[in-house]
Amino acid sequence: MPNNDEVLLRVEHLCQYFKMGGAELKAVDDVSFDIKKGEVFGLVGESGCGKTTTGRSIIKIYDITSGDIYFKGIRIGAGIRSYKNNKANARKEYKEKIAQETDPSKKKALSDELKAYIKEQNNQIKAAKYDQKNCDKEYQQKSVAEVKEKYLPLIEKASADEKNAINKEYSNELRKARKTKLVTQIQMIFQDPIASLDPRMTVRETISEGLVIQGEKNKKVIDEKVYEMLELVGLVREHAARYPHEFSGGQRQRIGVARSIIMNPDLIIADEPVSALDVSIQAQVINLLNDLREKFGLTIMFIAHDLSVVKYFSNRIGVMYFGKMVELATSDELFKNPLHPYTKSLLSAIPLPDPEYEKQRKRIVYNPLESHDYSVSKPRMQEITPGHFVYCNDEEFEKYKTELK
Fold this sequence. Notes:
- By secondary structure, this protein is α/β, with parallel strands linked by helices.
- The protein is built from 14 helices and 12 strands.
- It has helices at residues 51-58, 81-100, 104-157, 160-179, 203-214, 219-232, 249-261, 279-296, 307-313, 331-336, 341-348, 355-360, 368-371, 394-404, and strands at 7-20, 23-36, 40-44, 66-71, 74-78, 186-189, 267-271, 299-304, 316-321, 324-330, 380-385, 388-392.
- The chain has an 8-stranded mixed sheet, sandwiched between helices. The protein has a 4-stranded antiparallel sheet with strand order 2-1-4-5.
- A hairpin with a 2-residue loop joins strand 4 (66-71) and strand 5.
- The relative contact order is 0.11.
């Protein structure tokens, strides 16, 4: 595990709800975690548990319902539902208190308290909306300042013959810095390599699209970058002129990887990048991601439902069930001491190439109604041992502590 305590991504109380007619689907409900620079963070769970929605919310494909997402210390995602709920609850609570109070001065004090609280929540809503909309401005200003710091001294020292070339390069880099966005430092590898590639675009156009949007106009620079990325992912230059339908599933996924790393990101969200591939091709793509991680110092959020793959690839693992994070620990700790019944159920489903073991293997079935009684004490994420968090109530907390001893 990387010896780096710098937190690159922090997710706090993330909620992502979707309207379904008159009802609401809680796809992700109050999920919190952080990812440190240079590590691989695995996110596992069954289909429909909210893994992909979490990844898509981080990369701002969706506007989040509630919670905060911080990347490089800047809030890139902010939901306002929690602040609206706080206001509604406060009005209800204070209304009851004011109705019960007979002293006019105390009534006025309670009313003033409510007004101050409502004002504070309104300010929080304004700040959340501003950060959601303008989080890239600060990053753009920083990028422009870095370009000026690099090129202005070079232009001053350059001879008359060199100045034109440096000025041209400076203008190009300045234009790109003004167009850059913080969220482009997070790239995503999508689950389905067929659906995520435009069939009407060549491989060159697909891989270079991010550079073009960012403002790169030098065709020679773009082509060289594309060829470099193709060779990095195990393809050849000739593939640049072809279309997605001319490739196998594994090759298409490699094109997806090339498209993500050409932007030189700090974080890659790999959304089940090997689930649609054959086992032999899965190993190739995983090894490719490992090599790229070492070469570029990438941080990876690896979403999967295959625990055996995640164990091999991840430093820490978060387990999701029904939109909730139910357990979070290092890879070794999670496999050695699984505590939540759902985690135990997932681990019991992993097949091993051992006929004797398979004969004796017993599947653990997870039924939340049988496993938990939350009628009195409500659950929350609690740290059982350093770095090992479980979603449990106080009674279960003591039980898990005893279990580990």
